[in-house]
Amino acid sequence: MSARRVLLVDDEEMVRLSLRDMLELAGYEVVGDAANGEEAVGLAKAVRPDIILMDINMPRKDGVQAAQEIMASFPLPIVFLTAYSDSRNVSRASAAGAFGYLVKPCRQADLAPAIETALARFREARAQQQDAEHVRWALETIRRLSREITTNPDIDGVVGLALRCVLSAMKVPAVALFLARRDHLFIRAHLGVDDAGASAFCVPLGETLFWRAIVTGQPAAFTGSDEKSHRGTPVALPPPFGWAGSAVAAPLHDTEARGQADFRGCLAVFRPEEVAFPAAQISILQALASELVVAFQMAQTRQALAWRLWRNTDPGA
């Protein structure tokens, strides 16, 4: 792995020289140094370092102002150099998006941990931001599909596209749309679920994960170790996954709206690992399911015949 590329910013030349020696001794590559925030902004644009070590108190443009300008143009992790008594500026630096601090004079032993921690925090923050943007994209796409379903009689095709959005947003290998008819549940549409297993899936309404979600109007989940929750709800994934190790189901209606729709069902996602879904992911699934509800409600009123044909077709029949 190539050495981490560091930009040094401090108005004291001796500090920059000392930090350069310590960083190079620790295996980092110093790709530039600047004496003030204005120089730092220009150098950061020119050399695009992996990380910046930046003093806060500097002439012409201080470290916080420079950091704000850099982060607005091309985000990267910044570790601020500060003093023990610098609490006011530390607060400003935090608001600017600092990923770490080093107290001056810096010690050799502190450099690598501060840099690697800042890089890890930055990667995590970027991943969270990308995930949030991806979820927003999936929700907006399903909203557009909701409008599409009002004019397109190919409800299967529209639902298939919506399920692809769910897989992408949830980062899971399998998703299924369950509908209840009379006294049984069946899989109406799916992606990533074993085809033969999906066609054969038809279970009596009762204490299953999916039926609990439908009845309560609240998400329900299981992991493979949760025998009570798992009983009666196994779903096979294609090889090499085998049986689903965990799942979460979100209702396609809430308990108050149940009587206003001519369908009962839930949206469920699966993965092979026996690891519980975090609350944030369950909330995402619930939001995606809510968008599907809007699509189905519109289909009932604007594509009544196509809706009834789709609603009453059992793919496994």
Overview of the structural elements:
The protein starts with a strand and ends in a 6-residue tail after the last helix. It has a six-stranded antiparallel beta sheet. The protein has a five-stranded parallel beta sheet with strand order 2-1-3-4-5, with helices on both faces. It has a two-stranded antiparallel sheet with strand order 10-11. About 4% of the residues have low confidence. Helix 5 runs antiparallel to helix 6 and helix 5 packs parallel to helix 10. By secondary structure, the chain is an alpha/beta fold.
Task: Provide the succession of SSEs.
Answer: EHEHEHEHEHHEEHEHEHEEEEHH
Overall pLDDT metric: 81
Q: How helix-rich are the residues, as a percent range?
A: 40-55%
Kindly report how far apart the N and C termini lie: 56 Å
Instruction: Count helical runs.
Output: 11
How many β-strand stretches? 13
Strand order of the largest sheet: 8-7-6-13-12-9
Low-confidence stretches: 227-232, 254-261
Q: What's the overall geometry?
A: elongated
* Biggest beta sheet summary: 6 strands, antiparallel
Given helix and strand content, the structural type is alpha/beta
Proportion of beta-strand residues: 15-25%
Radius of gyration: 27 Å
